[in-house]
Amino acid sequence: MNAPVRTPSGAALDLTVNGRAVSRAVEPRTHLADFLREELNLTGTHLGCEHGVCGACTVLVDGEPARSCLTFAAVCSGASVTTIEGLDDDQLTSELRAAFTREHALQCGFCTPGMLVAARDLVLRLPEPDERRIRVGLAGNLCRCTGYLGIVRAIQSVIEERRARGVAPLLVERSLGPVGAHVASAPAAAPTLRDAAPAERTSAAVGVSEFVPAHTFEQRFTVAFPPEQVFGLFGDVRAVADCLPGAFIEATPSPERVEGGIRVKLGPITAAFRGAASVSRDEAERAGRILGAGADGRSGAQGEIRYRVAEGATPDASEVILTVGYTLKGPLAQFGRPGLVRDVAGRLTAAFVRNLEDRLAGRALPQDRGAPSAGLNPIRLVTGLLLGRISSWFKRIRPGGASR
């Protein structure tokens, strides 16, 4: 541990720690963890790896979990910092402490302060006690004693109890950039957390509004069924969601509004983008529009799908024209290059068409047979796309190919 060097040339630091105003002079290189321990004697913030890996030093900076061993104290000037000591009277932290004791979720206790801060954030955000999402959320907090089983069970039990009492998860709006760099942009976590009103629900809080798409593309496909039958099925939102890999419906408050999302599987990690959509249809034109918005953590998306069911080449066939517009926000936008999105959408559409034809023909889909939904796997889609392009490239350059 490197103690801060105190010299008259230190920069002035004014911040709030556990609800108390603090003013000190610190060297620019002083880390927040050292400042808390050495200057304020708040030794509940533990130092382990000092590389931001173990999570033992996790504290709240303006309400967001942060690695204090990597955060310079000087950048937190004007911010509000809450350490494990500042959560002594916090209702949620008290529930977690009791659950940790009940589930034998601690042994040596070295990781426990940072683990409780991370667990508190998970309980606030997760809508359900999903073990996989809890384990992913704890990936930045290492424990060398317990094997994590008791910790996961403790967090699950607190989420279950709070949701049973009608305490809804909070929608957390977080700015991009390092924690502490957005001083006073969000209120700090209060020392005592009050239960949210039972009527507040995450999906219902997602607003659906008009927007100008950043990118637009068109998809067309043919279905071997009459236009009236295809358009009729498109009017059943749940049936359409069953045909789209990873999609799910949670509620249909009205024929014009639906709440749900899509599950995305990345290796062992499964996330769910939850949101809401407004639905409108034009029976005379056999056309419709779906306008939606959703989010998962710090990433968000707005999308618009306009569809029209036209007559196909034969009386028993239909051509479906889709116009898709979308805007991505947050880290997700880094992977949303238009060309890649179009290619992935093409492969996703192919899977949707296969399921759609099975549904129209009365054949059972995998979920109808009791098979679990694996969720949309973009890695598998992109891998298939890349393999297809490589194969096409080799066909063009080999002898006898198109480009000799």
UniProtKB/TrEMBL annotation:
Q: Which UniProt keywords apply?
A: 2Fe-2S, Iron, Iron-sulfur, Metal-binding, Oxidoreductase
Look at the named UniProt entry and state the broad enzyme category this protein falls under.
Answer: oxidoreductase
- Classify the source by domain of life: Bacteria
* One of the Pfam families matching this protein, by short name: Fer2
State one molecular function term (GO): anaerobic carbon-monoxide dehydrogenase activity
Assigned EC number: 1.2.7.4
Q: Where is the 2Fe-2S ferredoxin-type domain?
A: 11-87
Q: Does the keyword Oxidoreductase apply?
A: yes
| Name of the protein in its database record | Carbon-monoxide dehydrogenase small subunit
